[in-house]
Amino acid sequence: MSNYPKTALVINCGSSSVKFAVLDPTDGHVFLNGIGEALGLEDARISWKHSGGEKTETPLGAGAGHDKALAFLVNNILADDKALLDSIVACGHRIVQGGDIYSQPTLIDDEVEENIKKVIPFAPLHNPAHLLGIDAARENFPNIPHVAVFDTAFHQTMPPKAYRYAIPEEFYTDLHLRKYGAHGTSHMFIAQEAAKMLGKPLEETCLITCHMGNGASVSAVKNGKCVDTSMGLTPLDGLIMGTRCGSIDPSVVFFLCERLHKTPQEVEKIFNKESGMMAVSGVSSDFRPIVAGIQEGNERCTLALQMYAYRLAKFIASYYVPLGHVDAIVFSGGVGENGPTTRKYVCSELEEAFGIKIDNDANYKARVYMGVDHQVISKPDSSVKLFVIATNEELMIARSAMQFVK
What is the tally of structural domains in the chain? Predict the structure, then answer.
């Protein structure tokens, strides 16, 4: 293809990876996507796939970092399709934590990078990697705007009664300890799509959006603005997740430190990497083998899914308070989009009290990987509509970046 529309490059950097995609911000068509993996390690490598093409993978060389991965993208992958390279007019960067500094997509300059550094303590694994990606991308794409799109930005509309903690005032004023939330770009996208399905302006809707992946969060979205969300200061809070414990009594930390002589860092690792669905089920952090275990009569797998559904249902129920009424509950993310058993467990917790009725036939047919991105899984007489919507954070980031193209 020689004639491309104006496209955006979307970059999402992890501590040892960089995901990238070149897409059309108008319709979301992806012309190229790929990932650099094991960066900094012996087997650093990069793989990519053009639209309609086959996946290609090649080593980057031992110890190759984010800079070499993005240089390879420019000098090797895109060099073979100069028309696609020339079509890129903006670059959007997914940034996990923007603190209370940023509530909108922001053009990146040196000051923005410094502010991203300031909030590293709130995202110690993610923000340093984002900065590596920003520096490498600005070097390799020096003539286009680079835009930071913050996972926390969408949640900046929460009122103080929702985001403040009941701790000494100076911890908030001096240390900025408060609820920030996460997955904001996803929650914003699925809220917009749910409003379209309802046939109502976003500004006239009350929605509960559930982003259910290995990391998971739920948000209350009133008239297009977030009024509460489940994740807190960090992505550890809230729902039970793949390997994260979610909300827990803080005294458990003191107990483990004193009784088992654990350091706070060791407890943090346990809560982030060794807990959640993996710990309860004893099988996996992946929901598919857990559901298979339930079907085989595994009691730990059954308990794990019951706990997950119960916790999510309680958050959903609590969000009736700030919303007043609910037009739709939306399931998204890898589990939300492709996990009918999980959706059924969640809705069964809500049926008696709230009249929420799931259509089992529609629910078990609704798997986003089968090609339908927007589906209704509620019965006609359900008090609330139930939607399954495929999230598309890359499209939101691309559109945000294009706002800065002159």
Answer: 2
Q: Do both 142 and 288 map to the same domain?
A: no
Residue span of the structural domain in which 71 resides: 7-150
pLDDT tens-digit map of 282-320: 999 999 999 999 999 999 999 999 999 999 999 999 999
Catalytic positions, please?
151
- Residue 401 domain-assigned (yes or no): no
Q: How far apart are CA 135 and CA 138, in angstroms?
A: 5
In a domain, 60, yes or no: yes
Q: What is the pTM of this model?
A: 0.91
Write down which residue in 150, 166, 188 finishes a domain.
150
**Percentage of residues in the chain having pLDDT higher than 90:** 88
Residues 6+ apart with CB under 8 A from 348: 309, 358
Q: Which segments are annotated as binding site for ATP? A: 19, 211-215, 286-288, 334-338
Annotated binding site for Mg(2+): 12, 393
Binding region:
12, 19, 94, 211-215, 286-288, 334-338, 393
Is residue 367 situated within a structural domain?
yes
